[in-house]
Design a protein that fits this description.
The complex is a heterodimer of chains A (264) and B (160).
Chain A lengths: L10 H6 E6 L2 E6 L4 H7 L23 E5 L8 E4 L10 E3 L3 H17 L4 H9 L21 H9 L5 E3 L6 E3 L11 H5 L7 E4 L2 E4 L2 E7 L6 E4 H11 L10 H16 L1
Parallel strand pairs in A: 1-5
Antiparallel strand pairs in A: 1-2, 3-4, 3-5, 6-7, 8-9, 9-10, 10-11
Chain B lengths: L3 E4 L9 H11 L11 E4 L5 E4 L8 H5 L5 E3 L6 E3 L8 H5 L5 E4 L4 E4 L8 H5 L5 E4 L27
Antiparallel strand pairs in B: 1-8, 2-3, 4-5, 6-7
Classes of the chains: A alpha+beta (264), B alpha+beta (160).
């Protein structure tokens, strides 16, 4: 293997990187980066359900647990959620130790009881040797695993429409005020278990107990987005409303027309 | 960033090789030309041209992205979508040129990433209407002859 030429490291740069050991492999990582991201960028697989690189880490699913220790800890180890743990100098990480695997199995066993119909969870559980849950299956179960990705996605979009309601075993994801939803589908597209149902028919988009009338493309008549989305984007980006009157394909064709006008 | 995708519309024959190459490289499925990032057009005035992402210096897609999922690759100069994307599709509506799309079948945003500095579309263009080059070729005027040799396999085409 060809080794990369080591660049001379300045002092300020040296302070920014830390050397850690993951499963016996020595890895240099930027200080403060979370353990999950460091492991994944080095090809070490840690399963997770609630982690999304674009969103703030949440630590909800507990699937990304790893065991950590340090040279001064006298073999004492502890379990941490890798998505929330910033890397530190000399950290020693075990991603597949018996304790870690046992913890993940319990989490998946519980998830399987919660969402017995989800293919994603069933597949993941099978990878850990769990084919049927040892707990009582939830009755009338949907596919929601309460990972909170939809809640955080909605926050990132700026609509803040989705939140978790109630506590404990009764906790569920809901849109408390349907008026706040802009019908952008970002939550449904990001859901790891496809738990958020939606459908589109005759220019009407149905999501979160609400029907949205879709605005049609000025040129081709294809339904593109909801009026609420336009209002939201206009407010956020400062662009004019007519900006959203055409679909991307029609705009692309217009670009071709303007190229031809410039050239000929 | 030294090279760019340079389009010379008067050389384009709307053969759609670039579209097929693009969808094949990015999806490994040549049967889905709808997933192409580049489009060839024959316009009403019989002009033929290709349109792909312009990699704008001040890009609207980058400005509207709420999670910094669109980042310029300093080596190729292309704006690339990374895994931070939450598929809010804001960029597809914001692009004034319609060059960023949402792929319904895979639920992801697709845009031209110049194939990490080796664009497949430029490689298959038989008339060199698409070139991956340092700067605009000097022979852009329509009345001048094309002095760049066509692709080797294109030379086998029977002449009129």
């Amino acid at each position: 293997m060809i080794k990369a030429v080591e660049k001379p490291v300045s002092h300020s740069e040296k302070d920014k990187t830390v050397r850690i050991t993951i499963d016996g492999r020595s890895i240099d990582a930027p200080k403060g980066m979370n353990l999950l991201e460091v492991a994944r960028s080095n090809g070490i697989d840690i399963p997770s359900l609630c982690y999304h690189p674009g969103l703030e880490a949440f630590g909800a699913c507990r699937l990304c647990v790893v065991e950590i220790t340090k040279p001064g800890w006298e073999n004492w180890r502890k379990l941490v959620t890798s998505c929330l743990y910033p890397v530190e100098e000399d950290l020693i990480v075990y991603t597949r130790s018996p304790e870690v695997m046992e913890n993940r199995r319990v989490v998946l066993d519980l998830q399987l009881a919660r969402v017995p119909n989800s293919d994603v969870i069933r597949q993941l559980a099978a990878e850990y040797g769990i084919h049927d849950t040892t707990y009582t299956k939830r009755k009338d179960a949907d596919n929601c695993i309460l990972c909170g990705i939809c809640v955080r996605v909605c926050e990132a979009v700026g609509a803040n429409a989705i939140s978790t309601l109630s506590r404990g075993p009764d906790k569920y994801v809901e849109v408390p005020d349907p008026e706040a939803c802009i019908g952008c589908l970002a939550c449904a597209e990001s859901c790891p278990t496809d738990a958020i149902g939606w459908h589109e028919e005759n220019g009407i988009r149905h999501i979160w107990h609400r029907d949205f009338e879709l605005v049609e493309c000025e040129t081709c008549g294809k339904p593109i987005l909801t009026q609420q989305q336009i209002d939201h984007f206009v407010e956020k980006s400062g662009l004019e409303e007519r900006y959203f009157a055409k679909c991307d394909s029609c705009r692309k064709k217009e670009t071709a027309v303007s190229i031809s006008r410039v050239m000929f | 960033m030294t090279k760019r995708l340079i389009v010379t519309p008067y050389r384009c024959t709307d053969c759609k090789n670039c579209e097929v190459a693009c969808s094949f490289v990015h999806t490994s499925d040549p049967r889905k030309p709808s997933l192409t990032r580049i489009r060839a057009y024959t316009l009403k005035n019989a002009v033929k041209t290709v349109v792909t992402c312009l990699q704008c210096d001040e890009a609207a897609c980058v400005t509207v992205c709420p999670v910094e999922a669109l980042v310029r690759n300093p080596i190729t100069g292309a704006i690339e979508r990374n895994e931070r994307c939450i598929t809010c599709k804001m960029c597809t509506y914001a692009c004034p040129f319609g060059n960023i799309h949402f792929d319904n079948s895979n639920s992801e945003i697709v845009k031209c990433d110049v194939c990490e500095g080796d664009p497949a579309c430029a490689k298959v263009c038989p008339t060199r209407a698409l070139v991956w080059a340092d700067k605009p070729q000097p022979d852009l005027a329509p009345d001048e002859e094309i002095d760049i040799a066509p692709m080797p396999w294109a030379m086998k085409m029977p002449s009129r």
